[in-house]
Design goal:
Number of strands: 15
Strand order of the largest sheet: 2-1-4-5-6-7
Shape: globular
Distance between the termini: 25 Å
Radius of gyration: 22 Å
Strand content: 15-25%
Low-confidence stretches: none
Length: about 375
């Protein structure tokens, strides 16, 4: 799989940009603020319907414009597909495949797979648990796009259940009983357990598959360091069903229902759901200590890189090689980490690299060069 063509209109800083790409390495060189990251961000958006830099779509639309458009031509095993996304904050986004509209933008998920490594990835190690949950879920969706729907359903149920907990708790504290709210809460418990179990089971299987790949990738980029290991920590604690090669959705559903019953009084008091995958954590361990708070700056970079390389190897092993995107990261890495990343990149079917100066890019990645400056992107012959 590779991206043959990218065109953006009113996306970020670009009024218009048109970029013809090829398999192998493509390097976009330009000073900070010239828009090179915006171009690879657009490609990542086609793959994930999200940005690695911001949480909402609004900043992706050029200031003063009502919408942005991203068009890509993708080649997969000699078959070409075009994907067009219209991003309109405050309205429903739209998507087209081969010029035909699709019912929902998320129907394009799975057409393009990317693995992106960027300076923001340091937050995977040093940031809040939400950063690591987002990493798992994004990888889950790339692996099996139907989990975009599972995650959306879970988040919708969670919002509605939390609103009900607040109103029911306020009614109880005010002496108004709130029996109707409590009866409705039983129904929402079932919805939360159903969707939560499906998401939790998929995460558990993902971490099982990813763990050896991350450990091997970390050993490759930081052989002098302590061994790395990842694990999943559930809000169910010891009540999480274990055993078997794959997670048991039915058993997890029952465990979630039981835990919700046990926590109900606390949840009504606090007005939030205290059990479920939204409160879980991806544990990152170095030796015997958690990476967060104990890893050095270099070890944190190595761990972030190992998570992305592990994700890349996992997706590769499952049939379709993802496009590898390296956004302004070589300047952040020492010689050994640069070399290891370059070795992986050379073997990729397509790798897109951004850098402020050419000297930051390892010589092995001597592919097509583009100069990004003054609102233009030009191929360097």
């Amino acid at each position: 799989m590779y991206v043959r063509h990218l065109q953006v209109t009113d996306f970020r800083s670009w009024e218009h940009a048109d970029l013809a790409l090829e398999p192998g390495a493509s390097v976009l060189v330009g000073q900070n603020g010239q828009g090179k990251t915006n171009l690879v961000e657009a490609i990542g958006y086609v793959a994930t319907l999200g940005s690695h830099r911001v949480a909402t779509d609004a900043p992706l639309v050029r200031h003063g414009c009502p919408r942005a458009v991203v068009r890509t031509a993708l080649v997969n095993e000699d078959r070409e597909l075009t994907v067009e996304l219209e991003i309109a904050p405050g309205k429903a986004n739209r998507a087209r495949v081969n010029r035909g509209p699709v019912p929902r933008p998320r129907d394009v998920l799975g057409i393009l797979r990317t693995v992106l490594f960027a300076p923001e990835d340091l937050a995977l190690v040093r940031g809040d648990p939400g950063e690591r949950r987002a990493f798992m879920d994004a990888l889950l969706v790339q692996r099996a796009p139907r989990y975009a729907g599972v995650r959306a359903d879970y988040e919708k149920v969670l919002r509605q259940r939390n609103a009900l907990l607040k109103s029911a708790g306020a009614a109880r504290r005010g002496g108004r009983g709130g029996e109707n709210d409590l009866s409705t809460l039983d129904v929402w418990d079932g919805h939360l357990a159903k969707h939560g179990a499906e998401l939790l089971a998929a995460r558990l299987d993902l971490v099982d598959d990813l763990a050896p790949l991350v450990a091997a990738a970390y050993a490759g980029v930081a052989p002098e360091s302590r061994p790395a290991a990842i694990g999943y920590r559930s809000s169910l604690g010891e009540a999480l069903p274990t055993g078997g090669e794959r997670a048991d959705v039915s058993a997890i559903t029952e465990a979630l229902l039981a835990a919700l019953g046990e926590k109900r009084s606390q949840e009504l008091e606090r007005g939030v759901s205290l059990v479920g995958p939204h409160r879980d954590e991806l544990d990152l361990v170095l030796g015997e200590a958690p990476a967060k708070g104990y890893a050095s700056h270099g070890e944190s970079w190595s761990y972030a890189l190992a998570l992305r390389l592990g994700a890349y190897e996992l997706l590769r092993a499952e049939g379709t090689e993802p496009v590898l995107v390296l956004d302004d990261v070589f300047a952040e890495l020492d010689r050994r980490r640069r070399q290891r990343l370059a070795e992986v990149a050379i073997a990729a079917e397509q790798v897109l690299v951004t850098a402020a100066v050419e000297e930051d890019v390892p010589g092995e990645l001597a592919g097509t060069r583009f100069r990004v400056a003054d609102g233009e992107v030009r191929r360097v012959e």
